[in-house]
Amino acid sequence: MPLPFVDAPAPAAPSPVSLYEDPDRWRRPYRPGPLRVGGTALVLLLAAYVLCSALIIACAGAFLLAGMWGGVAVVLLVLAVRLVRTGIWVGPAGLRQIRLLSTRTLAWAEVGAVRVVEQPVRWLGLPRRVPGRALVVEPFPVLVTDHGADFLERPLAFAEAASALQERVAGLGSR
Prior knowledge:
Largest sheet: 3 strands, antiparallel
C-alpha cells in the first residue's frame, strides 16, 4: 500500500518577513537575551512581593503606608517594562535606541554607515571595560555590544543580530 505522505516533499522554508508583520510598527531586529529577560523576571517577582506586602499592610489598616508600598510596586513594574524594552528598535521613522532612562530616535536621513568594530566595550553596562565587539551607527557612539545583557556569552547571536540590523537599516534606510 503506497503512503504518499511519507514521500511528500518537505514544506518550503518560511519567509523571513511574516505576512502578519506590520511594516509601520517599531520592531526589534533581535530577541532579548536571557540575562535581560531573567533580570526583568526578578524585578517582576520583587514587584509582586511588594504588592502583596502593600495588600497585607492595607488589611492591617495602615492605608498611607500601604499606598506608599503600592507606589513602590508601580515604580518596579514600570522599571521592569522599561528594562525588557531596552535595546535598538527599527521603524518607519528611523532607528530608535531605548535605554533605561532615555530614548533617542534617529531619522533615516541622519543614519550613516552601520559597522561592527573591535573595541573596548562595557561589561553589562557597568564602568568595567573589556575587549569586545560593538555595533556602531555614525551618529550613535555604540548601539549594541557583545558584552551587553542581550548577547553576553552568545557571540553567534550577536553576529546574527548585527547582520539583521544592517539588513534592516539597508532596507528601510533606502525608503
